[in-house]
Amino acid sequence: MHLGFIGFGEAAFELATGLHGQGLENMKAYDPLWIVPEYSERIQSRAQSANVTIVGQAEKVLKGTDAVIVAVPADKALGASEQLLPHLSSETIYIDVSAASPDVKKQIAANISKVGGKFVDAAMMGSLPVYKHKVPILASGDGTDDFIQLVAGYEMNIEKVSDIPGEATAAKLIRSIYMKGVVGLYVEMLQAARHFNVEELVIGSLSDTMNGKSFEETMNRLVTGTALHATRRSIELSGSIEMLESANLDSSMSAVAKAKIEKLALLNFNEKPEHWHQVIDACKK
């Protein structure tokens, strides 16, 4: 396999390092920063350690390449596809691993299809420094099957979502709503717990509650229970907000949560739903 990279930052470097460890030798990369003094030494050093050849023009990466992994910032992803388009072969699989939105991924896929190329929207779901090329990847787009087959001998961990570009990225970004949002809640809760000197008590109580059941079971119980008791729970949260404000502590996450729960109150559930699906479907009406 001949593999190319457009952009050779951390993502490309970690993937290339892992693949080199699996025996892949034919890799080349282009990064516009390779001639910028403050970045060039690091890029060259990384390329050498991963056995990747740095080339001076993006089109040279695409020549004779079976697949190209485009690892550029999200706001550069669409532009990169447009710049590479004149040099793309219909035989090259175009894999975008950026954090661009699902709509942008669809636009990139449309660009690639103009030359008959295959596109993969690849969303990396774990730590690259930890997993390297074995990082869990969700993939969608019409090139996904070909990509999986191409790298079959290199122990990559790729799960196909669909043939629709953008769906893999959508799954990652939706997951991020929780993974990033919950950190905000943690920080707000821990600030209050530390201020009132009850951190061990609060963390222990939450651990008992959250560790008793699986994530899905706990999520379902909290969503359905709150849908039924939304008015009371929003009032209780008002008390938490008042306490935080009186202590000059940030209450922004609690305030947003209260507003969301108040919207659930408008659904007027008279009995507890069996499944969170019922709550979310009711929100659409």
TrEMBL record:
Signal peptide segment: none
Domain Phosphogluconate dehydrogenase NAD-binding putative C-terminal: 193-262
Pfam families in UniProt: DUF1932 (PF09130), NAD_binding_2 (PF03446)
Recorded coiled-coil stretches: none
Domain 6-phosphogluconate dehydrogenase NADP-binding per the UniProt entry, residue ranges: 4-141
A GO molecular function held by the record: NADP binding
Protein name, entry field: 3-hydroxyisobutyrate dehydrogenase-like beta-hydroxyacid dehydrogenase
Annotated organism of origin: Aureibacillus halotolerans
